[in-house]
Write a structure and sequence with these properties.
119 residues; rod-shaped
Length: 119
């Protein structure tokens, strides 16, 4: 450390000779102004980020609710589809039953002794 003592002393002596109190206070003022500006920007950024996070959380809550509503609607549609398919199957079975009944009626009508006369 001994070899740097002379250099450090020389720098301090140079600063004392060339830097006036007015320059020192101006430099301190610029540094304080810069620090205040950086703090202002930082605080503004933090507040904005908090607001954005809150907005995102609100949006996320709404999205989750919307997804839940959509899932309920899908479940209802699937239930309605199953009911409709069951009804269609029942109607199809009834149509086949009725068709079979009328086929038997026609067979009986076409067989003797009830066969139609052909002219």
């Amino acid at each position: 450390m001994g070899e740097y003592d002379g250099g450090t002393t020389a720098v301090i002596a140079y600063v004392r000779r060339h830097v006036t109190p007015k320059m020192l206070w101006a430099t301190i003022g610029v540094l304080v102004s810069t620090l205040v500006g950086v703090l202002y920007v930082s605080i503004t950024w933090i507040v904005t980020m908090q607001s954005d996070v809150k907005s995102f959380k609100d949006w996320q809550t709404e999205a989750k609710k919307s997804i839940a509503d959509t899932q309920q609607n899908v479940a209802k549609l699937q239930t309605d589809q199953a009911v409709t398919e069951s009804m269609v199957r029942g109607m199809d079975a009834e149509v086949k039953r009725q068709g079979g009944k009328w086929d038997r009626v026609e067979e009986v009508a076409d067989s003797p002794p009830h066969a139609r006369r052909r002219h």
